[in-house]
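Example record used in the benchmark description.
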Amino acid sequence: MEASQQAPQLRTMQDLAKEAYQVQNACNLAGVIKGMDRAMMDLRRLEPSLGTSAYNTHPLMVMWADKIASLTGSQTDTHAVMRAYNWCGEQGAF
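Model output (structure tokens):
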């Protein structure tokens, strides 16, 4: 099998923790979201017996979600989420 065809190596929990810490300096929301998706997939492989709530509230996911909240301004602007809900309503979402 050629190097380009090899399956990606599973990251360790330490690898995931380092990445979750390092992402706190990120500024690209799309990249953060893609990285969070990869981290969740790896977490599910490492801890297959956890349930949905445990995955959602795992410290790794809290770190990623915190960064997303920071980049979207919803972490510091207490009305940002309500404005987003209102906007969705104005677009006919509900």
